[in-house]
């Protein structure tokens, strides 16, 4: 019988080292086919982007845009004042209404006062406005005054007439809320007839000046 010879550690190492190593096969990478548009885009050189303006330049551009237009440029159409009408011409032609005279303010005051007494806030705008208190009544008068000033400043004659009517209505509402009858205002206007404006200003009560905390009253 043949005897098997056991190899020592050194012999096993030599046998392992003698085992040949097979080289790893490198597979070729598949080439992707690009479309004609993609190939043209790929071959086209990249365009240089314009540099962004500095922060200071952008800020100066915004400031320049906010400044008013030079005097040589024409004004916008909405801000251009219309041609002035001749003296005595009506802004609303033809405009003829029965009872269109100053006494309409007395009639308006009586109407607003009757609405206040009735207190029907569901159907009467005057009653609803009066029910909201004096601050709201005074606020509405101020809003209408500003709107009338704007239209007059822009030279919109017809709009000034309309806003003046709104202003007078809300002034009458203020009178009703304060318990002032139109006759009291008419009496004060009659008292000032023939009196110089400078003299009238000097004769104002000192308490009014102290309450206003200024001597520069109109």
TrEMBL record:
Its EC number is 3.6.1.31. It is found in: Cytoplasm. It catalyses: 1-(5-phospho-beta-D-ribosyl)-ATP + H2O = 1-(5-phospho-beta-D-ribosyl)-5'-AMP + diphosphate + H(+). It is an enzyme of class 3 (hydrolase). GO terms for molecular function: phosphoribosyl-ATP diphosphatase activity. Residues 16-34 have a biased composition (Basic residues). Transmembrane segments: none annotated. Its main location: cytoplasm. Residues 36-50 have a biased composition (Basic and acidic residues). Pfam families: PRA-PH. Residues 1-63 are annotated as: Disordered. Pathway: Amino-acid biosynthesis; L-histidine biosynthesis; L-histidine from 5-phospho-alpha-D-ribose 1-diphosphate: step 2/9. This is Phosphoribosyl-ATP pyrophosphatase. It comes from Falsiroseomonas selenitidurans. The lineage of its organism: Bacteria, Pseudomonadati, Pseudomonadota, Alphaproteobacteria, Acetobacterales.
